[in-house]
Amino acid sequence: MDMKTYEVDYVLDTMAIQGIKHFHPLYVSRHLSGNINLKKLIEYLLSQVGQKLRVYYELQCPNGHTDYSVSSLDDIELKLRDCSYCGEEYQPDPKEIWISFDFLSDYLDYVKKKTARKVSHFTKPKERQLTR
């Protein structure tokens, strides 16, 4: 099934309204209908970096803890290190890098304003008094 970007945008808007600030693509895919190609979803989310999103690459230790994150794959050092969470010594594995995203503050402001406009648009207007 082809991924519909308007569905992804709707899920992102809903997440922003709900106050979700940090997320993984898998979380988004669970809220979309049908079988989603995760690679295409990630490509779409990456296309939104700088517009709606900020990207992070999270490195995990062998115990599954997120040790640290960087904003560029070029910033990953594949040298021996200690996990900041559990202290396990390990060498980062490129296969154990998770991609994650945060919403940009401008986008969060936009969604809040857009939601406020929708709410005010559907509120019952005050009755006007007729003047002669």
- SSE order: HEHHEEEEEH
Total number of beta strands: 6
Q: Indicate the mean pLDDT.
A: 87
Strand order of the largest sheet: 1-6-2-3
Q: What is the rounded distance between the termini? A: 62 Å
Low-confidence stretches: none
Percentage of residues in DSSP E strands:
15-25%
Quaternary organisation? single chain
Task: Please tally the helical runs, counting DSSP H or I stretches of 4 or more residues.
Answer: 4
Largest sheet: 4 strands, antiparallel
Give a short overview:
With 132 residues, the chain is α+β, with helices and mostly antiparallel strands.
Structural features, described:
It is a single chain. The protein has helices at residues 5-17, 25-29, 38-47, 105-122, and strands at 22-23, 53-60, 66-70, 81-82, 89-90, 97-103. With 132 residues, the chain is an alpha+beta fold. Strands 1-6-2-3 form a 4-stranded antiparallel beta sheet. Strand 4 (81-82) and strand 5 (89-90) form a beta hairpin. The termini are far apart.
Architecture blueprint of SSEs:
Elements: H1 5-17, E1 22-23, H2 25-29, H3 38-47, E2 53-60, E3 66-70, E4 81-82, E5 89-90, E6 97-103, H4 105-122
Antiparallel strand pairs: 1-6, 2-3, 2-6, 4-5
Which short descriptors sum up this protein?
four-stranded antiparallel β-sheet; two-stranded antiparallel sheet; 6 strands; 4 helices; elongated; 132 residues; alpha+beta
